[in-house]
Design goal:
Four copies of one chain form a homotetramer.
Chain A lengths: L11 H18 L6 H8 L3 H7 L3 H10 L16 H17 L1 H16 L1 H10 L5 H11 L9 H18 L7 H10 L11
The structure holds a DNA duplex (31 and 31 nucleotides).
Chain lengths: 198, 198, 198, 198
Amino acid sequence: MSEQRRGAVRSEAARRAILEATARLFAARGYDHLTIEGVAHEAGVGKQTIYRWWPSKSALVADCLLEGMLLPNRLGPPNTGDIRADLVTWLDEIFELVAQPIGESLILSLIAAAAENPDVGRRLYASMGATSALVERFEAAIAASEIRDDAPVQEIGEALMGPLVVRMLSRSPITPGTAERLVDVVLGPVSVGIAPPG
Amino acid sequence: MSEQRRGAVRSEAARRAILEATARLFAARGYDHLTIEGVAHEAGVGKQTIYRWWPSKSALVADCLLEGMLLPNRLGPPNTGDIRADLVTWLDEIFELVAQPIGESLILSLIAAAAENPDVGRRLYASMGATSALVERFEAAIAASEIRDDAPVQEIGEALMGPLVVRMLSRSPITPGTAERLVDVVLGPVSVGIAPPG
Amino acid sequence: MSEQRRGAVRSEAARRAILEATARLFAARGYDHLTIEGVAHEAGVGKQTIYRWWPSKSALVADCLLEGMLLPNRLGPPNTGDIRADLVTWLDEIFELVAQPIGESLILSLIAAAAENPDVGRRLYASMGATSALVERFEAAIAASEIRDDAPVQEIGEALMGPLVVRMLSRSPITPGTAERLVDVVLGPVSVGIAPPG
Amino acid sequence: MSEQRRGAVRSEAARRAILEATARLFAARGYDHLTIEGVAHEAGVGKQTIYRWWPSKSALVADCLLEGMLLPNRLGPPNTGDIRADLVTWLDEIFELVAQPIGESLILSLIAAAAENPDVGRRLYASMGATSALVERFEAAIAASEIRDDAPVQEIGEALMGPLVVRMLSRSPITPGTAERLVDVVLGPVSVGIAPPG
DNA sequence: GGCTAATCGAGACGGTACGTCCCGTCTTTAG
DNA sequence: CTAAAGACGGGACGTACCGTCTCGATTAGCC
């Protein structure tokens, strides 16, 4: 009835050692200086053990992402009841991360990995909260009538994340006030916000 | 008085052959299968001739961009007097390009190259019109009072381009109506647009 | 008094499957393309079952030899009463075998295996009749006064076999008449043979 | 008219370093523990530089032989005017060499290499004097009427060398007197030698 | 019949070496 | 002095096997 399984079972120790080594080296040296041989050596593992389970280094990175070893798994905005302030808080948090050289090269490396491997892209997108934490915050805002209930939340989310990516790729500096201006752009300036109920 | 120059001068034929070979191979096989040796061979040129003038393959790609060999040099929105329609037209044009496999992989390769090399990033940013053609259109719109004169045009531009990049990296499909929704997000829905003057 | 034995006993089926697979692969691909993994797979057997009973691939080949799976177990000269003719017949038989590509590569593989593993060497030597069938024929020849009773039979035997090995290793062609010339060399030319008794 | 040659020329330093490293490692660890990577490392050379000029490790070994780095290039019998004594001297010299463990494993390694690669075989054959020095000695012996002028010298030579190879492969000990007995076998016992002229 | 071993197939594991692809530098010859 | 050609030392690739080590299943003697 059930699937036959024979032979030794996959070693969890090796799996973890590999992912941890990958995360360590990725953070230390960036995506394109990451090598399978380096990971194997760092993890104390044969190369074949890596190739047995992952097809490429980008798949390795994707798995690290999935396990939350490169970024906090749910990086979303807070909910203080004030959607504009919460989004600004969240953006500023991210801006601060990427303002540091290490944060910048980490994100650029992730972008490079995502460009190369669809899986990394999908997981990075999920990780960055664009689908989960951020959307939840918008739904809460709709429920609280902070924003219109027909607001295109996916587009709004991407209009917040996207500029970050663009600035990083173009190496444009992120000036003070950028977060506020972005939130104003996507939610509309305060003065033209939706009318309060009643 | 003048600089003394002896011996053969830099060969323009070689320079063009190299850039054309780079563009050809980049389009055909993508950024990370592009090799200096491949370019040298394709261009019928010695490797040293490439290394003499360009420090890396990403610099080569950056130069191709600058010469408009990878993307049209000025890809900007039209100006029909209707900023919303013009932006939608422009976005849909880009969306159509990246909906084709070749366009998608071209852009993803450019993103990867930009992530790896600051120069490519800067030039790509300029190329994509985010600073020039797009900003000019916004200035025209301000002049025509189509949008507020204190609108943060850089942020608006990036809030239009950014989501494209995010969708490509995350491999999210671009659904019909996305362009309209994005324009609505960044300019505000029509009904709450700025009041007509007077 | 006797050794205690518990648990499953050695599988004769596995043993035979392994030896047969070894012989098959050895003949097909030669000694140095023979792999334990290949034998295990071909025999439908786990690798450990091979390692449990044989220490190395050359031991495997030695066992195949011992079971006569690679060469006829007793390849010796006939006895028609004419020692010279019998030796020529025997040599020509061998020469014909090694003239075919398959025979040549089989023997060269065996030589390589023998060079690598003393056991293979000893068993091959025995197999090739140099100690048994050939010596028996010489003893018969001595009994029949065909050759001197103090003839150094081991040296004579090796002086017949050795040139074959040398020709194979040096890839010298074996020309017609070689067998006769060799027999003449080791037994002395007919005209100067030992005087008939009486 | 002449062949065009452009680009850097082959480095003699690299060639020598590689051959010397090969000879050193071959002598130290034997043919089948010899690795291309080991040679490259020992020679301080990139692997590709080896693969550019030699197709396999056995070709490397063959070249070492050709340069006389593994064996003296002309290992032949002396000429004191007494062919039997000279041959015995020569054989005993070789027997002494192969009686030492290092000599034995060197020769066995050469045999293994010869079995694998025709070129090694041919060059080894030439090196061992079977074609040159030994044949010259026989010709001198014929000229001096020490042996019959129609003696099959190639067969005689191989009937001397061959048994050595057979003993090495079969790991039979070489007992005292073997050289004499072999010479007796191939030249005939003294008592039945050719009649002195006159 | 249950217990204890040993064997079997399968195959994962840490390794070593393979032969290939490119890197960026250096060397040679032609123009 | 530039350019083509291409050899060089080096690093990583992805693959093939090595010999060892689990696994779960099966098989035999012993209580």
